[in-house]
Design a protein that fits this description.
It is built from ten helices and eight strands. The chain is of the alpha/beta class. It has one domain: TIM Barrel (Alpha-Beta Barrel), CATH 3.20.20. An eight-stranded parallel barrel has the order 1-2-3-4-5-6-7-8, surrounded by five helices. Helix 1 runs parallel beside helix 2, helix 1 runs parallel beside helix 10 and helix 7 packs parallel to helix 8. It is globular. The model has no long low-confidence stretch (mean pLDDT about 95). The protein binds 1,3-dihydroxyacetonephosphate. The site of 1,3-dihydroxyacetonephosphate has 14 residues, from strand 8.
């Protein structure tokens, strides 16, 4: 298994100058060379180039928040995997619940994007997670299994080490209601079990990370939870001090 991940999803926030400042602050305060984590910054598309210029040749890497499945053509408004590679991007978030819920992204679309991303040499971070209603109805295990199976349907064993699954319960995102140790453990076990069913022993190479109201105060218990190989951070990654504190506390776990 590779290093644990700390991924900063800036969502639709920050102008270029803010991104530049935040990236420089993170680089100044963190000494990535000594980190036991892989840190990925995921800015909005318009800020990717400026962030790339700052983190190029450092241990930080660049991710995108979405990608289309075709490589070029008449697809107004879309960005292709090759275009992302061209600006130095190596990771891509796929199937984030905000895209599934607000933009109507389907399991089928996520599946096509996963294949296209892998084919272009991008590493997909596939987001899965149940809503509160689904959890209260006892549907969480089935939702997670379905989302994982569908997204990875066209992936073969040679590619599994490039896949990351992010468990982000929808009810924990941006609410301050981060999941408990037990809730994370149960969900990650469920996901791990599904991955073993799909890829056998090779599933050991797939990192499963947790996201949902992660901050400097709860990072240590999140990362200490069994079967957690990193975290996907939203709000707390927009503030340099909070994000640095989170990284430092993660390292001191
Ligand atoms: P918050 O950390 O703001 O809850 O967001 C989590 C998330 O959606 C990261 O992708």
């Amino acid at each position: 298994m590779s290093k644990s991940l700390i991924i900063a999803n800036w969502k639709m926030n920050l102008l270029r100058s803010d991104s530049e400042l935040l990236t420089k602050s993170i680089l100044n305060m963190v000494n990535p060379g000594v980190l036991q984590f892989e840190i990925v910054l995921v800015p909005p598309f318009t800020n990717m180039e400026i962030v790339h210029r700052i983190i190029d040749h450092t241990d930080l890497s660049l991710g995108a928040q979405n990608v289309f499945w075709e490589d070029s053509g008449a697809y107004t408004g879309e960005i292709s995997p090759t275009m992302l590679r061209d600006i130095g991007c190596s990771w891509v978030l796929l199937g984030h619940s905000e895209r599934r819920q607000i933009l109507g992204e389907t399991d089928f679309e996520v599946r096509r994007k996963v294949s296209a991303a892998l084919a272009a040499g991008l590493k997909p971070i596939v987001c899965v997670g149940e809503t509160l209603l689904q959890r209260n109805k006892g549907m969480a295990p089935n939702v997670l299994r379905r989302q994982v199976e569908s997204a990875l349907q066209d992936v073969n064993n040679e590619n599994v080490q490039n896949i990351v699954i992010a468990y982000e319960p929808v009810w924990a995102i941006g609410t301050g209601n981060n999941a408990s140790v037990q809730e994370i453990e149960v969900a990650h076990d469920e996901i791990r079990d599904k991955l073993i069913g799909l890829f056998g022993k090779d599933a050991d190479n797939i990192r499963i990370i947790y996201g949902g109201s992660v901050n400097p105060d709860n990072i240590q218990y999140v990362l200490s939870t069994k079967n957690v190989n990193g975290t996907l951070v939203g709000g707390a990654s927009l503030d340099a001090d909070a994000f640095i504190q989170l990284i430092e506390k993660a390292g001191a776990k």
